[in-house]
Design a protein that fits this description.
By secondary structure, the protein is mainly beta. The chain has one domain. The protein is built from no helices and twelve strands. The chain has an eight-stranded mixed sheet, with no helix packed on it. A two-stranded antiparallel sheet has the order 1-2.
């Protein structure tokens, strides 16, 4: 079962044993995520300041942040820490949209446990 803020969702798939939403793979609306936590294997250090697309939450152009200490925070429309236990996937293109950059992060009770770059 997949839970987000205590609400059960449907369409569960798993990454490294942690559930993520199947809808994350579909096109359409998305949310934005910024990561102040140092991202591993960045091809260009300027990418640390970029916003990434994410489809693991509300699909309403909400804004989320992984803080420097590894906490997950919703910034817009509300400002609150999220105490989720699950994996999330976030991504962007760079170099004139010719290169893909994707990360997978695992959270336990809202705290970052691991973050890895998905290899192209």
């Amino acid at each position: 079962m997949l839970y987000y803020d205590g609400v059960e969702k449907v369409g569960t798939i798993y990454f490294d044993g942690v559930p993520i939403r199947k809808e994350a793979m579909e096109m359409g609306m998305f949310d934005l995520l910024r990561c102040d936590y140092p991202l591993p294997d960045l091809p260009d250090s300027r990418l640390q300041m970029w916003s990434f697309q994410i489809k693991d939450f509300e699909y309403q152009m909400n804004h989320y942040l992984i803080t420097r200490d590894g906490s997950l925070r919703e910034e817009l429309p509300k400002s609150r820490f999220l105490k989720i236990t699950r994996a999330i996937r976030f991504y962007t293109t760079y170099a004139d949209d010719s290169s893909w950059l994707e990360y997978h992060a695992i959270f336990e009770r809202g705290r970052l446990k691991s973050i890895v770059r998905e290899k192209e």
